[in-house]
Amino acid sequence: MNKHPEDGMAQSQIKRDRRLLSRIFCVAACLLGIVDLASAQPGVAIGVIPAAGPYTEPLTVHVGIGCYSTDLWQGWSFELVHDSGATLDDVVASEMLLATSVDTSIIEIQSTGFSVEVTYTTTVFPIFPSEESHLYEATYSVDEPVDVLLQFVEPALLWPGGIWSPLPPGHRVVRFLPPFLRGDANRDGRLDLGDVFRLFEVVSTSGYPQTDCDDAFDFDDDGEILLGDMWGLLACLFTDGADPPPPYPACGFDTTDPGWDCIESVCP
Ligand SMILES: [Ca+2]
Ligand SMILES: [Ca+2]
Ligand SMILES: [Ca+2]
Q1: In this structure, which ligand is nearest to the CA of 218?
Q2: Which end of the chain has a smaller Cβ tally under 10 Å, C or N?
Q3: How many Å lie between the centroid of ligand 1 and the Cα of residue 83?
């Protein structure tokens, strides 16, 4: 029996709407830097939202799919492996994934990572990696401050009709940060005039430190590195100016947002 013309028009409109939504989501994800466009051929990429945190605590990363394709898909598979310096503590499928019509969901946890294969009974929209929207939460821990490389091995996408096609491999670095001392701009383990000079040098030239421990420069912990940080340090050292927020006077971690990365530190 032939379909009613209006049914066809309605379905076409739904398809157009879904493709428009997909395109909007894709552009938003790209703008947010979730998807690396240069490596995202043929238009879809599996990704991890970049993460950083104190090395003394487990760190959870969000795994999802990003795209700038107008097509939709019906499943995916990949293996996410990590450096030997890290331990994979746990992998949890998101409620968003569990709430949909999943045919197969295999999570095999190995010493080097985990692998999944998922197919849907119905076509689904992209699920971008973010704190609110993702497929899996993977939690890692380490014994020392290191960068951990996460790599997607043989990622593939299942298209309508049962056709699997390979995706770009992709990788992300998860950064486990060392403790630092706020205000110790020259990284010698104490606050003195040398830090004032170092702060002035950085603020008066580039205005952005780009050092191995940018967080130490943000004396007032306001998320910016400006002359005010230098004046604050001067006042703290030589007048009755206020001490900086933690971590001070002992080494520790930044507990407030926004924060800068501290990659290298003299703190134990
Ligand atoms: Ca110092
Ligand atoms: Ca500041
Ligand atoms: Ca901060």
Answers
A1: 2
A2: N
A3: 33
The strand order across the sheet containing 136-142 reads: 44-48, 59-67, 136-142, 86-93
Q: What is the pLDDT of residue 64?
A: 86
**DSSP string for 61-98:** EEEEEEE--S--EEEEEEEEEE-TTEEEEEEEE-HHHH
Q: 247: CA distance to ligand 3 center in Å?
A: 10
Rounded to the nearest angstrom, the distance between the alpha carbon of 239 and the centre of ligand 2 is: 19
- Return the structure tokens found at 112: 């080097």
CATH label, 5-177, candidates 3.40.50.11540, 3.40.309.10, 2.60.40.680, 3.40.50.720 = 2.60.40.680
Query: Distance from the CA of 165 to the center of ligand 2, in angstroms?
Result: 48
CA–centroid distance, residue 174 to ligand 2 (Å): 25
CB 246 within 8 A of CB 219: no
Label residue 102 by pLDDT band (50, 70, 90). Answer: confident
* Per-domain boundaries in the chain: 5-177, 179-268
Strand, coil or helix: what is 107? strand
In this prediction the pTM is 0.76
CA of 220 to the centre of ligand 3 (A): 9
